[in-house]
Prior knowledge:
Blueprint: H1 10-38
Amino acid sequence: MNHSIYSADRMTHLKVVIVALVAGIFVAGFGISARMNADEGYSQTASARVIKAGQPVAVTTSNASMVR
């Protein structure tokens, strides 16, 4: 058995190309179907509620522990 792609015969190259093509089609199909399902209810429209910034707040203390 030869493990080099350079010295492989024509059928081995064809099998590699076919497997890569099928995998690429599967990944593209999965991405397209996931994208189509993600649009339900999450799209932004012009009639969406606008959130405006309030007054600025200064944070002077923190309860976070310091890690060194």
